[in-house]
Amino acid sequence: MSKASRNSLPRTGVATLLAGLKTPGEIQLPNGAVIPVGIGEPVYRVIFRSESALRTPMTEMGVGRAYLSGDIEVEGDLGALFNARQNLQEKVPLRQKFQFVYDFLRTATKMNAKAIGDHYGLDDGFFLSFLDKRFRFYTHGLFQRPDETLEEASEHKMETMFASLGLKPGMRILDIGGGWGGVTQYCGARGVHVTTLTIAPNSARYVQRVIEEKNVPGQVFVQDFLDHNPEEPYDHVVILGVIEHIPNYQRFARRMWDVLKPGGRMYLDGSAAVEKFAVSSFTRDYIWRGTHTFMTLQDVLAELLYHGFAVLDVTNETRDYELTMLEWAKRLDSSKDDLIAAWGEHNYRIFRLFLWGGTHAFKTNALQAYHVVAERTSSPGPRPSIPRRFRQFLSNLR
């Protein structure tokens, strides 16, 4: 295979951007010639299938679509290429902005159900190919050492949650967005009754099988948390990696107050960003539709305090999420052939970008992760109305 120089590249386009990376790799042109990038042993090769692919616009959406269509192929370490992400432009289409506003104003239950259905439509087998084998969590584990297994990290997460809530046999807890039954499995084995809420029917079926096969106390409902009205309040609540789907924190905090007993605690975790609704256009089109948004910690804490909660603990777990997504990405790649055979190359490529991109985002602090423990007090708090909040805003202006 012949070598080529950077002069072989067009003046604009993503190929020219990649040629300036310091991470050692290779760019393969449509004619088969190869341009070396950086200094050292190459860890990746980017293959451009056509001349038009070389000129792919330097936007996240443009590069993402070119990869999904196969116009651009990546061999080797895909994660290393995300160092170029900061040089890509982010242009949110106008139609996407209108769609987001429309979804935000729609009935939350219907919108959430559709967004969840779009993401989880590949069925259980696809996700279980890369999640931990012990509890099947689609949220980060907690690593005591970087070289621990994903299964060990998931076990540590359950240990932390169990201790933070002070759980004991006979207690009743609510698990919001139960995934594949990890909380039910762990807590149920220790005599805690778990009521699971999910808006994904396949998740409900899986959790029900866990209850029956593990013979643990529990029940599961296909219902949105915002519509849940229990006959009696719960001792405690667990919500792992779900706050990203509930952007109306005021309504969330009000409902959380209603479902907890006085003194009851909530253990919440999730991926976070400094700015609310700061989700890329590619993610909105291909990964999480609807109003999915990374948690803004400051806003969640404000609403919890407004609604009568005492915040007991806030812990940064960004590094844990990075290590979790790194392991997910590796496991996805190791299952490449089976995933493509069962679910198609397009779906494999979407999740490959999602998991390696997420790993890079947590590594560079573009995204963060936290867990929050809050306790319901006996006072409902000030719960300021929208007019009152506006007056406070005006009064605080200098």
TrEMBL record:
UniProt entry keywords in alphabetical sequence: Lipid metabolism, Methyltransferase, S-adenosyl-L-methionine, Transferase
An example Gene Ontology molecular-function term: methyltransferase activity
Cross-referenced Pfam families: CMAS
CDD domains assigned: AdoMet_MTases (cd02440)
GO BP, sorted A to Z: lipid biosynthetic process; methylation
Family: Belongs to the CFA/CMAS family.
Name of protein: Mycolic acid cyclopropane synthase
